[in-house]
User: What shape does this take?
Amino acid sequence: MKDKTYWKSNVLKFTKNWLQGGLKDRAVTRDLSWGIQVPVEGFKDKRIYVWFDAVIGYFSASKEWSQQQGKPTLWETWWKNTKAKHYYFLAKDNIPFHSIIWPSMLMGYDETLQLPYDIPANEYLCLKGEQFSKSRCVAVWVPDILKQFDADAIRYYLAINMPENKDANWIWSDFVAKNNDELVGTYGNFVHRVISFTSKNFGQIPAKGNLTEVDKKAFEIIETACKEVASSIEKCHFKKGLRAAMNLAQFGNQYFDQNQPWILVKTDKERCATVLHISLQIVQALSILMEPYLPFSSSTLRKILGNTNSLPKWDDATLELKEGMPLEQPQPLFKKVALQDIMEESNPFSKLDLRVAKIVDIKEIPEADKLYMLQIDLGPLGRRVIVAGIKPYYSKEELLGKSIVVVTNLKPAKIRGVESKGMLLAAEDSVESCSLLNPQNATPGSEVVVDGIPREPVSQLEFEEFKAAKMVIGDKQEALYEGKPLKTKNDKVISDKKVKIGTTIR
Assistant: This one.
């Protein structure tokens, strides 16, 4: 640790705190019935601790790959090469496994193996202030957003919003703003106006003439930007590198506006050619600097400028332009998006706030044959009253203390003079048959989710919006939405009583 002064402060602090507390032996097995078995006599009921097993994968995968290549010792190129630098990208909760436990394992196995050079751990990326969780469906699902947005737009927001030093939030309105104002408005706009204007008036990359002080300054700024981006990426300061590249795009817009080529093309075409050549030089630099961040648009841009489609090694890229290279009228690299479009595409189920509730009190409503007034406990959300038409199907004794599933964000409704702040869910397949949804052992307040559907409940849900999320009962009496089971953290939601398959949940 003595020479790791270049590590992120959070990684250094986390690791030093462990070291100062004193290193203690850690068991590499657990008392479990599942997992990797221990190949030692007397350990039949033990399994290898997942964090001991997982990190070995870095090493064992290299060995396996070498064997598949027919070169069994090829792995030594990285693991026994003193010039090789090993980087580990992870979130902050995995720091000690990589900064203490994994190095210890490597040293214990073979002292000639290379230890981690850098562990640029990030903080957490959250969704609306809540930590991402697959089990709770707090997530932005990549397959879904790739259907709606270009990969580079997503990559840009992830990079510019990366939680390098503190927790960050994925916020849809901010995603739209960053895409429209920065990616489209600054970078995309500069590239499109330069190439379009050059293509229209010259048809090719023009040769540069005599340089003014302004032009020479432009070349200095290009060189400075290249050094800053390279240095930032090398130090794993990715946001800083991307911001430096975007600053170059911003400068490009200023240079283009300041020199006014639309006037020069009529008054001094030779000077206009020089201005456009330098503007294209900035575009060429951006196609290289943006490659690690925005590979798809960078590849398109490089082809337009006459470069090869691939950029196998960053250091091999050249800033030199191919003068006389024909230019075609380009298409915009990026597209604007609207927040309204995002909201319209959201799944109806995403808008629901389904929670587990416990019935703690029941009262009858005068002159109401079907209605009960139920007081429910929603755990952290407190208690509230709902009115439910289940009197013909359940007695008070059956309901008291029962756990149910409730739509908590449904617009309040006044029923027989009582304000109902929510609606319980039940499966009803005939006038005589009705079955409450049973969340089994879940605690009050637990969220009810469906895998693969982000949980983005609206503040107040209209009844028509609720009806759009069509839930049914499956063949195992499970509550289903789009063929996937509703579930809490530990259990699937089932029908309290047996009802027909396909019964609608209301």
